[in-house]
Amino acid sequence: xxxxxxxxxxxxxxxxxxxxxxxxxxxxxxxxxxxxxxxxxxxxxxxxxxxxxxxxxxxxxxxxxxxxxxxxxxxxxxxxxxxxxxxxxxxxxxxxxxxxxxxxxxxxxxxxxxxxxxxxxxxxxxxxxxxxxxxxxxxxxxxxxxxxxxxxxxxxxxxxxxxxxxxxxxxxxxxxxxxxxxxxxxxxxxxxxxxxxxxxxxxxxxxxxxxxxxxxxxxxxxxxxxxxxxxxxxxxxxxxxxxxxxxxxxxxxxxxxxxxxxxxxxx
Length: 267
What we know:
The structure is a single chain. The protein has 267 residues and is an alpha/beta fold. The chain has a single domain (4-266), classed as Purple Acid Phosphatase, chain A, domain 2. The protein contains eight helices and 13 strands. The strands form two sheets. An eight-stranded mixed beta sheet has the order 4-5-3-2-1-11-12-13. Strands 6-7-8-10-9 form a five-stranded mixed beta sheet.
């Protein structure tokens, strides 16, 4: 596989410490896809799961070792924004260690555009105001991911590709679809209020690139279901890339999907 070096890569919702986290796949992705700027846009570590019944594994540590190697070999600058599942970072914000900055939000200037970078839970009133309800929902989501894992084990035996059952269920619930639409519009409004021409977020595990009222809305998706990231080329063009499982032998490939123009066409 040919290595690619981007101007910027955005990763969010890795949920290290949870059973559904795909840390090994993400480390492989970052081995083949390097950058000058790496934005870790929230929920990288799942403090909620670690407090309950999660476990920190060697593969989770290896992900951070990969990031440190990028910082050393490619002089990669790393911006880590706090999400709702890694809200324990509130105790140290803001923090800067060498080329690593841990912040609540960030303004990224790229060529002739400014982007407001934020995890996105700022507009999730359930998460910010009624955390116990959010955690109850988190338990249900974890159970759905467990069912998804069992179902995909069956598909692997049959030689079938990975299927995100949890994503399909989510997109068939009208309230979830409505929430995503409201979420995208509100974050775009916030970016405009911040004097930015775009917003970069995560949180809802729904990768997307589209224009909303003149604002470029970019969502990096997640590394629990979508295996997705945002990448910026040197001309300022953004794309979504996916990391796909391609065989039982655990052979992987990176599929570059939907350039900015293509995503705009289907929005």
